[in-house]
Amino acid sequence: MYTKIKRLMDIILSLLGTIILSPILITLIIAIKIDSRGPVLFKQKRIGINKTYFKILKFRTMRIDAPKDTPTHLLSNPDQYITKVGKFLRKTSLDELPQILNILLGEMSIIGPRPALWNQYNLISERDKYGANNVLPGLTGWAQINGRDELPIEIKAKLDGEYVQNISLIMDMKCFFGTVISVVKRDGVVEGGTGVKDELASSKESISK
Hints:
single chain, mainly alpha, two-stranded antiparallel ribbon, two-stranded parallel sheet, 7 helices, globular, disordered C terminus
């Protein structure tokens, strides 16, 4: 029952968010275009509900000449590729705003496990143990307010499983307001990757341009 209510809330809140944030979205689009050459949006292959694939949307934060198949945290000098506007977007997490469209399309929810990259096999496998691949991925989730990028894969998957086992309006509200606090404090953010405690060889993720 709550799944249907949750989807309705996603649609309503996403539409409201698009309207309210439209001045910010337009300003960021203009800033990205002025700051560097290339598309405004960055698309990346991610794991959706029931391990289907979809393209997650982000505002581009890196130059178009950045290495395409190397995670940011494995670059010798990632700062040389991150644009001026990109640094601001990453610091404030505003690069995630285009995912409002993913939510409207039904590919994501506002709250849920963060969508894994298609080649994060260890994380996908760990989430299978807890049924965390069987729900819509989210813009933010339980793991994000309990460590974010610093979490090792096993703990991240376990927290995602805790969310799945306790999905409710109260749980979603905890995740939402906890995210606001985490973003303001910038807790647990490790630039560009799955985190220093993750298994680097298992992620091999593409750069978030």
